[in-house]
TrEMBL record:
Name under which the protein is recorded: tRNA threonylcarbamoyladenosine biosynthesis protein TsaE
Record SUPFAM superfamilies: P-loop containing nucleoside triphosphate hydrolases (SSF52540)
UniProt source species: Rhodococcus gannanensis
PANTHER family per UniProt: TRNA THREONYLCARBAMOYLADENOSINE BIOSYNTHESIS PROTEIN TSAE
Location (main, coarse): cytoplasm
Amino acid sequence: MADREDALREHAVIHLPTVEDTEAFGRRLAVDLVAGDLVVLDGPLGAGKTALARGIAAGLGVQGRVSSPTFIIAREHRAGERPDGGAPVAMVHVDAYRLGLGADRAATFDELDALDLDTDLAGAVVVVEWGEGIVEHLTDRHLLVRLRREPESDVRTAQWGRVS
Ligand SMILES: Nc1ncnc2c1ncn2[C@@H]1O[C@H](COP(=O)(O)OP(=O)(O)OP(=O)(O)O)[C@@H](O)[C@H]1O
Ligand SMILES: [Mg+2]
């Protein structure tokens, strides 16, 4: 498996001064996403992971509003018309943080497996918030996005790359 840090050096660091920039970055990422892709959004509380997921959903043209899955740990979005004209694909938005990361990783794994979603994960784009450290074990290939918040400012930065 290619080193995660190497993958993150694949692209220049992106500056995201506003939430609109974060969403636009998500729409851009979506253009290259296909069924079976796993996207791992890593970043501290309030880094903009859900905003990025919203942009990805818009770029994929999936149905339903993206919000923080507080009570539902995984939200399924049915395929819609893709603005880029690509093959329609569903999206599953998972909040791995609320699955219990930090407590017991083995238990977290079981929870992810036990979700028993209606959506066939191999036929969807799966976007996981706070997934680094857990979800990477589920599949060897994923698109990793690391979001950071600069101290004392609203400016976010993103590093990203394909871990293969
Ligand atoms: N440049 C920016 N990019 C993304 N979000 C921003 C930015 N500036 C301000 N925000 C705001 O930061 C807040 C947190 O964003 P968001 O919910 O996407 O973060 P998160 O990483 O998903 O948080 P959590 O860890 O709670 O899941 C939102 O209110 C959002 O509007
Ligand atoms: Mg969130």
